[in-house]
Amino acid sequence: MVCSITLTSVALPSAAFADEYDTKIQQQDQKINALTSQMSDAEAKVAAIENDMVETAKQIDTLTAKKNKLSSEVSKLYSEISDLNVRIQKREVQMTKQARDVQVNGQSDSIIDAVLDADSVADAIGRVQAVSTMMSANNELLEQQKEDKATVEKKTKNVEKQIAELEAATKELNDKTESLKTLKIQQEVAKNDLEAQRSEEQGKKDGFIKQKKEAEKRLAEEQARQRAAAKKAEEQAAAQAQAAAQKAAAEQAKATKAANEAAASAAEEKAATPAVESSTTTESTTTQETTTSSTETESVVTTPAAAPEKEKEVPVTNPTTPEKGNEAKPGNGGVTSGKQAAINAALADVGNSYATGWNQPGECLVSVRRWLAAGGINFGYGGPNSGYVASGATQVSWSNVQPGDVVQYESAYSPDSWIGGVHTVLVTGVSGGSVQIVEANNPGGSGYVSSNSNWSPAPPAGFRAVVWRFPG
User: Fold this and answer.
1) CA pair distance 25, 212, nearest whole angstrom
2) Which of 161, 186, 294, 463 has a 20 to 30 Å separation from 379 between CA atoms?
3) 80-108: string of b/e by CB count within 10 Å (b at 16+)?
4) Are the C-beta atoms of residues 173 and 63 closer than 8 Å to each other?
């Protein structure tokens, strides 16, 4: 059935509209999550750079401490070097003085000269010893001079080497620090850029959420307006159906009364006609009686013919004795006055056409609700399943179907959803194995009310037929 397609002509686009916003919001969430992940990576890199900078600063501090220590040692070494230089200079002065004394006084350091110039052997020995001692002292002085100079040069080179190494390491660490600072700035710029992008995407998401809420608000207002208009149209249609049913009942009563009056008039005429005793008249009388009898018979037969056709369409209302083998099923019991009024309203509506669309009177469900309302039976709003439960209706089996029951096609996978294939009919008669229904909007979009005898449920694939029985 197509009746539910027009029923949901507003609901389906609005659902698609909401899905479109949901899709946009999900896409924004994906972008925001991706940017957040990139920001986390950037923050982790910045943290790693900061840790590296801290370690580098520690290394620089360590090298600085070593350099300071070496500087202190250099100061001491320079002091030692200064002392050595003083001693060296003193020695050089002493050696220079000795050399000058030799030149001025004619003194010689030669052992031969000392022996030759001696006055005696003892003097010669003394002179030799003195010369040897002086020469030995001079030699020691020279050796000490050499050693002191070598020591100064070695210590100076060692300190200078260590200082150079420390300065090179310090320079390398300072360069690394500057590089880390640059890298940190770059990462912070990237992180700030990502934060700006995330803020922008978050703003778009907030905009979509706001637009969705506004659209939902407009949709709710439009649905409320349509429900109010549909309720008004339904009330008008119910009033028209009730008036039509009353008019049909009045016409049926009038026809029945006319038939009864005709029958009574014919009986009076028959009683007032004088009997003719002649033999020739006998035949005429016989013929007249035959005609009268025929007329009377025709009048009697006409009486049920004048009975309302609606009652003939609802055999349960005025049950006849069924033939053997064609007895009514257990569900074919009596019909309450309320359900009979609903059935009469539906039958009186057959042949009419109404507007279709969301909650319009030509929709199948709206029509059934209108017919039940004519009998004082409440069929509230809701889904193809929840609406019945909320109205106090109960499910019965198809084998127990009765006039006044409602057959609802619902989705087997989503019973409470208004989707294509949902359809609603009112059972107006049950006789033996034959079920009569009245339905609206079949074919879909026509809004036409029609009746169908020998009807049985034939839901589309994926749907099922559920029989609902209302109280009252």
Assistant:
1) 10
2) 463
3) ebeebeeebeebeeeeeebeeeeeeeeee
4) yes
- Two tokens, residue 437: 């229904």
* Cα gap 361→367, rounded to integer Å: 6
Sign of CA dihedral 38, 41, 47, 52: negative
Print pLDDT tens along the chain (472 aa).
546 444 444 444 555 556 788 898 999 999 999 999 998 998 898 899 989 889 889 988 998 888 788 778 777 877 877 887 787 777 778 777 766 665 555 444 555 665 666 677 777 677 667 666 766 777 777 788 788 778 878 888 888 888 888 889 888 989 989 999 998 899 889 989 999 999 999 999 999 899 888 888 888 888 888 788 878 877 877 787 778 777 877 887 787 888 788 878 888 887 776 544 444 444 444 334 433 333 333 333 333 333 333 333 333 333 333 333 333 343 445 799 999 999 999 999 999 999 998 889 999 999 999 999 999 999 988 889 999 999 999 999 999 999 999 999 999 999 999 888 999 999 999 998 899 999 999 998 899 999 999 999 999 999 999 999 999 8
- The b/e string for 295-307 (b: 16+ C-beta within 10 A; e otherwise) is bbeebeeebeebe
- For the entire predicted model, the pTM comes to 0.37
Alpha helices in 375-433 (DSSP H): 386-390
Q: Which residue has the tokens 């969705």?
A: 212
Residue among 351, 349, 370 nearest 361 (CA)? 370
CA 203 – CA 354 distance, rounded (Å): 48
d(CA 11, CA 384): 14
For the segment(s) 8-222, the CATH number from 2.40.300, 1.25.40, 3.10.20, 1.10.287 is 1.10.287
| Distance, CA of 150 to CA of 78 (rounded, Å) | 14
DSSP H helices in 275-402: 279-305, 309-313, 337-349, 364-374, 386-390
End-to-end distance of the chain based on CA atoms, in angstroms? 29
CATH domain 316-469 topology: endopeptidase fold (from Nostoc punctiforme) (3.90.1720)
Q: Which amino acid is at 109?
A: D
Helices (H) and strands (E) in the chain, counts: 9, 6
> How far is 421 from 269, CA to CA, in rounded Å?
62
Q: Residue 330: CA atoms inside 13 Å, Cβ hemisphere, count?
A: 5
Q: Which of 254, 246, 242 is nearest to 307 (CA)?
A: 254
